[in-house]
Amino acid sequence: MADLEEFADFTHRHGDRTVKKVAITVEDCYEIDKVEDIIALCEQYQVKVTFFPIGKALKYADAPVWQRAVSAGCEIGNHSWGHTDLTKLSDRDNRFQMLRTQQKIDSLLEYHYPMQVLRPPLGLMSRQVAAAIEPIGYMAAVKWDVDTTDAKKAFKAVENGSILLFHARKADVKCLETLIPQLLQEGYELVTTSELLDLPPIATSTDL
């Protein structure tokens, strides 16, 4: 089973261990006020994070927040429409989970934003899922190697290339308020997952 779940060409728990870069990822994003708090931190410290919202959590009223996230240089990745275990779905249903969320993001941003990274719900991934979604533009499934909202533990666990897992919740924001300046002081560059994995840049409205 492990050889089906883990494959370096598509699924990544971390980036290059020789480069002092890390990627902070924020998934689910049900609490939009906490999303705003995290964007504010990005603006304050001039860093980037990757948001992986659940498609059904995206609301039209929150369009300005997601537009602000992209303007701040942050990335938006796909966390599926309904937080479903993708390994149990058909190829058609996997594509539906990706495309429905893509359509919602496009409507909020008011242009086509080609998402290219996926955070698999529950961290469950397979070659079959990758084969189903690669043709519609996905280049990587992004897992993580640091998962804690304790700033001291997170800082101690971080290595070059680390991918940190957070959610848009109060405890996570509090952790990031401490952790982000610590990582910068230590000399880490905080980048998007696409940048960490050397994927092509995503076209935004400013590129059109």
What does this entry look like structurally?
The chain has 208 residues and is α/β, with parallel strands linked by helices. It contains eight helices and eight strands; from the N terminus they run αββαβαβαβαβαβαβα. It has helices at 2-5, 32-45, 63-71, 91-109, 127-133, 151-157, 170-185, 193-196, and strands at 11-12, 21-28, 49-53, 75-76, 117-118, 140-142, 163-167, 189-191. Strands 2, 3, 4, 7 and 8 form a five-stranded parallel beta sheet that branches. Strands 1-6-5 form a three-stranded parallel beta sheet, with no helix packed on it. Strand 2, helix 2 and strand 3 (49-53) form a beta-alpha-beta unit. The longest helix is centred in the middle third of the chain and has 19 residues, at 91-109.
Give the helix level as a range of percent.
Answer: 25-40%
Oligomer: single chain
Distance between the termini: 43 Å
Total DSSP E strands: 8
The fraction of residues assigned to DSSP E strands is: 5-15%
The gross shape turns out to be globular
Gyration radius, to the nearest Å?
Answer: 16 Å
Mean pLDDT across all residues, rounded?
94
Q: What structural class is derived from the secondary structure elements? A: alpha/beta
Query: Helix count?
Result: 8
Spell the H/E element sequence. Answer: HEEHEHEHEHEHEHEH
Q: How would you sum up the major sheet? A: 5 strands, parallel
Unreliable spans are 1-5
